[in-house]
Amino acid sequence: MLSPPPSVPHRLLPRQSLARFLRFLLPSFVADHIFPDHRTTYRVHPTSYLDGLRGIAAIIVFFCHYTENNFSALTPSYGLNHDRSSSLVQLPFFRIIFSGRPMVHIFFVISGFVLSYKPVKALHARDLEKCYTTLASSTFRRAFRLFGPCIVSTFMILCLRQMGYLKPAKATLIEELWKWKHAAFHQITWPWAWDRDLTPAYDIHLWTIPIEFAHSMLLFMVLLMLSRVKLHVRMGSVLGLMGYCLMCGKWAGFEFLTGLFLAEIFVLKGAGEKQQQKDWETGKDGQGDEVAMGTMVKKGFQVGVILLGLFIGGWPNHGADKTPGIAWFLERTPLPFAAMDHLAPQKFWFGLSAGFTVWAVGELEFLRKFFEGPVAQYCGRISYAVYIVHGPVMDLFQGFVLGHGAIPAHGEPGEEGYKQAMAETGVKGYFGVKSTTQITVSWFVGLWLLGPLVIWAADVFWRGVDNRIVDWGKRLEGWCLDEESERGDGPRGMGYGAV
């Protein structure tokens, strides 16, 4: 048989590259089904439920901005619409599906938990060296992890504006680059404002990122400060700092430290369960009716915590004082939150409910299993990408997909400011937006059409940008490490190995 000419591999190379590129554009769950040989296996670990909870919370943030931007009639509390009846999705508990603000507070509690878990676990194992190594590594890579994807996404928005796909655009590329520089380095990566909303240009939804970074650093400092003290001193100090944050009106600091406290409880609970299993195997387990009754009461309390969190999570942006139940919490908001601004009271209650919710989810097996399931875990993997890309994806496609109802002419022909009548288009034009039922149906259908676009874009961004930046951060850390210091061989006169 004749061998193929040497030029064949060169002709096949572009085809192979094209095939890889097309496979890359497929959502990962579709590509895994079509190409099972390339499937990545993900292991469930003790805190996987937190990833799932964060993923579902990120999806709810997208639902929130979709609803607020396009169907503002659904955002008031049930019964508070002035010009029409309310929709069923505005009822308490149901409205949590598009209540994005409390999800931000859940993000922060989860971040405090996850960032603390390994150092706290090392402290309980009395391995200070591992604790310090983990803290140093997390601190080194945190800026790359948080800011890197945002820098890329906002630069992509810059390009889309200059190409005319998004508005508003600056007159010249130089002006656009200068504006982007200000947004990137004086808003998105500017942690010195602590918990103040800097409303960054190019993607206003990234206001939480500098807050996340600043309080990650605070968390690492607290862990370092308390790493050598006794357990009860450490937990008492964390509780004291949590109270101090609330006294100062610093909701984000409270939430990150709440995550640290929950991580301590989680590690202690794991150690207790191991001891309980050992006692059961040796016949020392004395569980009786009283213990079983106590367990039932505890589970009932945890379910109540979840239900209360769902109710508080439906806190409206406006009209809280007129909303049954929410008005009761508003009246009991302590200082300084009660006197700061109109959003501060909800931040206080969101922070408290987020801490209790994260705790209760980990305690209730049926919820933990749900958040460890494949759908929630997938959402968790792409959660940061969903948070970053949902804004620009909506800006690109929501006008085309949702359209508008019929718009009558404005003014008289020939006069200044005259606007011609416009026929209905898109989902709103097809289903209508006049009645409450029409608005609800349009909201639901539009969500099912825009949702897959957001998930697809997030999946591609997660694999193409987010994962790569995480990997580059690890490589950079490895390249920068002082190997002699890692082995403890460095000269003491240069500060290496010094206590």
Automatic annotation (TrEMBL):
UniProt cross-references to InterPro entries, sorted A to Z: Acyl_transf_3_dom, Acyltransferase_3
MF terms in GO: acyltransferase activity, transferring groups other than amino-acyl groups
Cross-referenced Pfam families: Acyl_transf_3
Keyword Membrane: yes
Keywords of this entry: Acyltransferase, Membrane, Transferase, Transmembrane, Transmembrane helix
Annotated TM spans: 93-117, 143-163, 204-226, 441-462
Cited PANTHER family: ACETYLTRANSFERASE (PTHR23028), ACYLTRANSFERASE 3 DOMAIN-CONTAINING PROTEIN (PTHR23028:SF126)
Protein name: Acyltransferase 3
Taxonomic source organism: Podospora australis
